[in-house]
Amino acid sequence: MAMMNNLPSVARCDVNDCFYNRESNCHAPAINIGGEHPNCDTFIPTANHIGRMEQGMVGACHVHLCKWNTDLTCQASNIVVAHHNLHADCETFTPAK
Ligand code: SF4
To answer: Which residue has the least CA distance to atom 2 on ligand 1?
Structure first.
């Protein structure tokens, strides 16, 4: 569900080796999704993890080919992030028609 500031939340993130991940949830203040491929640009692999427990949100998204994208901003109510090869991808990406 979209939060008061209208940014989509990260409903789940399975990328447990990311600094911002605790118990399969994202706790980055705002992530960026980028480029032609919907990868999470905020992913940073490390053995350490963030202490804060607030819900992660989607800041900017540069995937203009996604049906949820308007003006390089995600309009989905929330997204799911998961591993793709050795990086993290937005699994909610849906090609625009
Ligand atoms: S659902 Fe689409 S617009 Fe939203 S973050 Fe994922 S790729 Fe970007």
So the answer is: 93
